[in-house]
Design a protein that fits this description.
The structure holds 2 protein chains of 2 kinds. Chain A is built from 6 helices and no strands. Chain A has helices at 7-31, 37-58, 70-96, 101-108, 110-121, 130-148. In chain B, helix 2 runs antiparallel to helix 3. The longest helix of chain B is centred in the middle third of the chain and has 27 residues, at 69-95. The chains are: A mainly alpha, B mainly alpha. At the A-B interface, helix 1, helix 2, helix 3, helix 4 and helix 5 of A face helix 1, helix 2, helix 3, helix 4 and helix 5 of B.
């Protein structure tokens, strides 16, 4: 049973709130034609970089890049590329979609693949369990039904 | 059928990138290659650098002085929310036994996104029993996962 008093659960709930703001906010500025898609991607990324730099200055425990193994830095570089690629795909997707809910439901399907990948390849993750996979599939199916039957 | 068109292809692409992203973050944290804060900081700085490169390559991108202050404030708030999301998400996947659990809980945002968009956005869907059934199915799914973990 998931312990809702665990820290990770609290962080996840906070994550829901922040991701709602971000997704709805992006759709809002794009719907109102306040900004072009590429401009939104560019400036959000630049601001994220500024916030990251501020965090670096304020966090005394953060090591300098020269103190980190090149392999780790390479992974971070790949992650940054992935985030940027995700931002480009996702922001364009919510721009073209009639409702922001459709792209979000597609993204939620990632849960299935993440579960399969982590349970098969990660040492720290629990062993693959069919019951859990059924749960994941039901969850995603439920989310899919919610999206499909939304009346516009 | 709603699941077609440009947005769908882009969303599927984004979905696969999310798999790489979330699994990659968990991999780095599990192997203790970086601590959560370092991961957040250096990923954000990397994104900022890519944003700058994109800015210099995109001739159509307006400079900040060409936007009104309201939009700049809105962009900054969005970036801040995105950064805070990154902070809580990375810490959550660091502490959770499996990255899937965090992904599942965060995916519940779709319900809130629907509710908020139906209230505040022009396209407002009304209550639908099929949607309610979908919600029950989702909750059953979450319950199965939580009991079997």
């Amino acid at each position: 049973m998931i312990n809702i008093y665990n820290k990770w659960f609290g962080y996840s709930i906070l994550g829901i709130i922040f991701v709602c703001f971000v997704d709805l906010g992006r759709k809002y500025v794009l719907d109102k034609n306040m900004i072009m898609v590429d401009e939104l991607i560019i400036y959000l990324a630049i601001f994220a970089g500024v916030l990251g730099t501020l965090h670096f200055i304020l966090d005394r425990k953060c090591r300098y890049p020269r103190e980190i193994k090149p392999k780790s830095l390479f992974y971070v570089f790949l992650l940054a590329i992935s985030v940027y690629a995700f931002n480009m795909s996702f922001t364009r997707s919510i721009y073209y979609a009639s409702d922001v809910t459709w792209p979000v439901i597609m993204i939620s399907l990632a849960a299935i693949f993440i579960y399969l990948y982590s349970s098969l390849f990660f040492d720290d993750s629990p062993e693959f369990d069919w019951k859990i996979l059924v749960g994941v599939l039901l969850t995603v199916a439920g989310l899919g039904i919610i999206s499909v039957y939304f009346t516009e | 059928m709603i699941f077609k068109g440009k947005w769908f292809i882009l969303a599927v692409t984004a979905m696969f990138i999310v798999v790489i992203l979330d699994a990659g973050k968990k991999y780095i944290l599990d192997l203790r290659l970086l601590n959560p804060n370092e991961l957040i900081i250096y990923t954000s700085i990397g994104i900022g650098i890519f944003g700058l490169l994109h800015y210099f390559c995109d001739k159509k991108c307006r400079t900040l002085v060409q936007f009104n202050s309201k939009i700049i404030l809105f962009l900054f708030m969005l970036a801040l929310m995105g950064y805070l999301f990154n902070v809580v998400f990375v810490n959550s996947i660091n502490l959770s036994p499996d990255v899937t659990l965090v992904g599942l809980i965060v995916s519940l945002n779709i319900i809130f996104i629907y509710l908020i968009s139906s209230i505040f956005f022009e396209k407002s869907p009304s209550f639908n029993f099929d949607v309610f059934f979908g919600l029950i199915l989702t909750l059953i799914g979450i319950n199965i996962i939580s009991k079997n973990f």
